[in-house]
Amino acid sequence: MKYQFSDRVQGLKPSAIREILKNSSAPGIIPLSAGNPAPDAFPAEDIRRISAELLEHTPIEALQYGVTEGYTPLREHLRNYMKQKHNVGTENDDILITSGAQQVMDLLTKTLLNEGDTVLCEAPSFIGSLNTFRSYRAKLRGIPMEEDGIDTEALEQALEQEKNIKYLYTIPNFQNPSGITMSLPKRKKVYELCKAHNVIILEDNPYGDLRFAGEDLPSIKSFDTEGIVVYAGSFSKVISPGMRVGYAIGPKEVIQKMVVCKQGEDVHSNMWAQIVCHRFMTECGYEAHLDRLREIYRRKSGVLLTAMEHHFRPLISWSKFEGGLFAWCTLPEDIDMLEFVKAGTEKKVCVVPGTAFLTDESEPCSSFRINFSTPTDEQLQEGIEILGKLAKEMAT
Amino acid sequence: MKYQFSDRVQGLKPSAIREILKNSSAPGIIPLSAGNPAPDAFPAEDIRRISAELLEHTPIEALQYGVTEGYTPLREHLRNYMKQKHNVGTENDDILITSGAQQVMDLLTKTLLNEGDTVLCEAPSFIGSLNTFRSYRAKLRGIPMEEDGIDTEALEQALEQEKNIKYLYTIPNFQNPSGITMSLPKRKKVYELCKAHNVIILEDNPYGDLRFAGEDLPSIKSFDTEGIVVYAGSFSKVISPGMRVGYAIGPKEVIQKMVVCKQGEDVHSNMWAQIVCHRFMTECGYEAHLDRLREIYRRKSGVLLTAMEHHFRPLISWSKFEGGLFAWCTLPEDIDMLEFVKAGTEKKVCVVPGTAFLTDESEPCSSFRINFSTPTDEQLQEGIEILGKLAKEMAT
Predict the structure, then answer these.
(1) Best mutation site among B2, B6, B168 for testing chain A: the one with the most A CBs within 10 Å?
(2) Which one of B72, B256, B259, B266 would you mutate to disrupt binding with A, by most A Cβ within 10 Å of its Cβ?
(3) Are strands B349-350 and B30-31 parallel, antiparallel or unpaired?
(4) Chain A nearest C-alpha distance from B391 (Å)
(5) More confident residue, B11 or B197
(6) What is the largest CA-CA distance in chain B?
(7) Do A47 and B59 touch (CB under 8 A)?
(8) How far is A394 from chain B (nearest CA, A)?
(9) What DSSP character marks residue A34?
(10) What's CA A26's distance to the chain center, in Å?
């Protein structure tokens, strides 16, 4: 049979980057290209205990159908926790538990976007989200990043130029891939600009709890008196990605539509995982756990920074990062980035070419992304040394 | 802010049926309207043991990111199991683990359907799937059901009349809501007709293992030499719906596109649940477990049948059902079905009005659906008695 696919799927091109990354899990490879939490970051012992208890005492609750909106005690706890700790959520907001935060991007796009409508996003931005937007045939317009976050002048220009803008997608904390954190004045400016143009903000915050330097900044959602921000939260980096639990906090009217869409996608999220997240948050010293995670990543990022200081200077530079899992490195002009990444893979060190994170992969880019949570300390040191030598070889 | 929703979401009307069902979980209600597996059908003890072992010995595998296609040992086992037991799957097929079978409907629709394209479905059919198709703005064309399954003459007519038919959606075994099983000759005829018209078949089989009378029939997918059938399997009725694990077996080319779509929706399905399903299938006497389930539902359906014989005759009739979870009951012409269902709810007995399962809810329908897996024996007996009395009161 000759299959006839939908327009939206035909438009999803296999990425050139995938070819480069294909070998990143082969044996002997140093994986600086992943985004997995560090193995010692998982609260495995607590999850084991909670899981045993709930399957002993309330197995049917964990195994039976649940409601689409999510496990009620988890929703209630998150509502209070996010309000008290982060001033996120108002009387007019509601909360939806999703199958990972990726589903927030999917459901909001499904709820708001017609084919051809525009999504504004940071350039570079997280490839997973960009691909979700593409799957709904969004027109992506990238707004350049500066050291303190999105270029708000360029954002204003885009807001004035583009038609049918449905939302701005931003990762304000330790952005993937750039590691950049948006400054407080820019957060306020972004909120004011979008409010003035009647454009929703999709604020994705998977790494916010992983700050290991500097001071916490309020989320854009915390300014949201007008109901224009949908906040995407995730347990993937702070409890476990394999559980696939995330959540959206947004205006009731929007969340209600997202609930209908979720019902058609997967009915509800895995119940066991939702209950484990709830009990872990409420019974296991959640703040101390977050402190422990920050300590793990502070230490690991230190290993990376020390290695980069030794082996990357002066050829390769990197953006300042105060949290998260990634470093964004930039090559001098005389080294072709894609050639560099390919040559690195041949030397068994995998990083992600920066073009993967652009709205148009064919645009020029001299940066690449390094992850420091997945590799061991030794892999990090060895990988950076190999990349540093490679840059020196390739520099003319 | 005034929210502007996408066309597809604006088209999703809140259903009149929801209003009727709103009270179905209130205290004191006899819930004959649900579709939940019976509480004693869950292999809770095995799941508890497997879960404890895997979180003890391989916690990182259960908690870390996985691949979109699904947990490899589960995919491999299912491939062999479905081939050996049901002759489902060929060299040209691949398998994708999904977040419940509902996601198979979603991903296949996303992969094949442009707005306005046609989906053929049985009339009546499962409301959850119909709503998924609607969320992609499918044009639904219902094909009437006969005692031995879909009306193949009407199907042939529709295949000739409709434009841009992307697939036929069918539940051949103990269909939800009608309970009807498609005969072997009709299965062959449906396959031949769709093959001749180059139309894919989406074969949804959540209840196939729950046969408690009659003989098993081969699935339509087992005839599939041409790669025109996508088979949707589910663990919701045989292990646990709260885990949200289902799977698609279909042509590689189609599955590959579905994988890309799934990546944008939820990255991958819950790892813990996938591992539990694999180990339960391979280590816990799966066939004996299925026998035990059939015995549970054989007994429960017997309670329902006895009660209906006593209290429904001669006013209310029902379709023959040899498995599954539902009975499809039909009122005499002089009783208005929606009035009857409403009056039942006031007497605290909830059933689902048949109109909920039509492509057009405003069409006339004198049937309603009863579920016998969720209520207790006492609730079943009491509920049927109340409904029987109600019919006698309402008959003129």
Answers:
(1) B6
(2) B266
(3) parallel
(4) 31
(5) B197
(6) 67
(7) yes
(8) 34
(9) -
(10) 25
> Which pLDDT value is given to residue B396?
77
ipTM score of complex: 0.96
Out of B5, B48, B227, the one facing A112 most closely (by C-beta) is B5
> In terms of DSSP bridges, do strands A200-204 and A229-234 run parallel, antiparallel, or are they unpaired?
parallel
Contact A232, A204 (CB under 8 A): yes
What SS3 state is found at B39?
helix
Tokens of B393: 């009161």
pLDDT at res. B259: 94
Is the Cβ pair B42, A48 closer than 8 Å? no
Instruction: Answer whether the bond into residue B124 is a cis peptide, omega within 30°.
Output: yes
- Distance between CA atoms of residues B252 and B267, nearest Å: 19
Contacts of B131 in chain A (CB under 8 A): 260, 263-264
The DSSP secondary structure of B223-247, one letter per residue, reads G-SSS-EEEEEESTTTT-STT--EE
Q: Cβ of B269 and A244 within 8 Å?
A: yes
Best residue in A7, A50, A55, A228 for a mutation probing chain B (most B CBs within 10 Å): A55
Instruction: Give the closest-approach CA distance of A28 to chain B in angstroms.
Output: 20
What's the average model confidence in pLDDT over B184-205?
Answer: 98
What is the percent of chain B where pLDDT is above 90? 93
- Give, for B231, the enclosing helix (H) or strand (E): strand B229-234
CA B125 → CA B111, B174, B202, B330, B357, distances in Å? 21, 11, 13, 16, 5
CB contact under 8 A, B270 and A267: no
Neighbours of B140 (CB within 10 A): 17
Nearest chain A residue to B254 by CA: give it. A3
- Is residue B173 within 8 Å of residue B207, measured between CB atoms? yes
Name the minimum distance, in Å, from the CA of B334 to any CA of chain A: 36
Give pTM, 2 decimals.
0.97
Q: Examine the pLDDT at B377 and tell me if it is beyond 90.
A: yes
Q: Which two tokens stand for residue A47?
A: 């999850």
Query: Is the CB of B111 less than 8 angstroms away from the CB of A37?
Result: no
Q: What stretches in chain A show pLDDT beneath 70?
A: 13-23
Please give, rounded to a whole number of angstroms, the shortest distance from the CA of A1 to a CA of chain B.
Answer: 6
- Phi and psi torsions of A92, nearest 5°: -90, 0
Q: For residues B114-130, give the mean pLDDT.
A: 96
Cis upstream peptide for B43 (omega within 30°): no
Whether the per-residue pLDDT at B205 is higher than 60: the answer is yes
